[in-house]
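Problem 12. The chain below contains 317 residues. Write out its predicted structure in token notation.
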Amino acid sequence: MSRDAPNIIDQAIAWHLRQADMAATEWEAFVAWLEVPAHAEAYDRVTLLDRQIAEVRFPDPAPLPVAANDDAPRHRRWWPLAGGGAIAAALVLGLTMPSVFAPAAADHVYATRDGERRDVRLADGTQVALNGGSLLRVSGDDPRRVALDSGEALFHVVHDAAHPFELRAGDQVVRDLGTTFNVVHSGARIAVAVAEGSVLFQPDGAQLRLGAGQAVTMAADHRLVRSTLPTAVIGGWRTGDLSFDGTPVGEVAASLRRALGIDLRIIGDLSKRPFTGMIHVTGAADRDVPHLADLIGATWRRNGEGWVLAQRDTATP
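Solution.
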């Protein structure tokens, strides 16, 4: 092991623990960090061990004997109090003492920066198109078990009735029934749209079947909204065509950030306003941002290297 290895492991653990709360600039830094092979290898090991730790079943503590004349004992419960520090310690222990855990193959991690795209072919022949600002994990033990931790991806899945393809986005599961489908995982919002075949979306354990031309969006409060759309527009981001149906402007802006790789900020309540329509992204921010502002009835201005959108009656600081 090289001298730098412990430091790299510490960095990998830190990135892993921060992911749920990272801002766009931090995601960009994370993707850049992953581009170093040693960093990517360390992060793979950390995510693998985290999954193994989560699967460990610890025995219930044995009850302590209580004498008749004694006061009630003060139970010292340490494991349920485990926060980031205890989790990090467990990860370090597992990485330095790998024999504690059963050997397993590390996850494969694929990441893109905003404005960058990547095509991935899995071992089973399934093809995945990753949009900008996305993070995909593929199980090292089973290439038909994947997780979209953030961003957007279009999946062309090879059908195998005996071994269905399973995608996790946050706590939710999408099970493929032989199809092409698009998934967006942005914060607590998840959107699934089917172009061909069908999928089984399992929100909170339910069974929701979606066929070609059908879509569903799960909001942060787990409210589901079903819709229909032309199959030709699903995955249209690959050719610069973005389609929205009652989508909050904040998510529309996130789509533009993924496509252009720009810093785009929303002022006030504009981010909550629903937008329905189509946007063609030319790739030139100085054309695409003003065009979006016109479509949603907002003002725009440059802010250094970034952009700011606001309601027409709201001043931009």
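Discussion. The longest helix spans residues 37-55. Students who got a different answer should revisit the alignment rule from Section 12.3.
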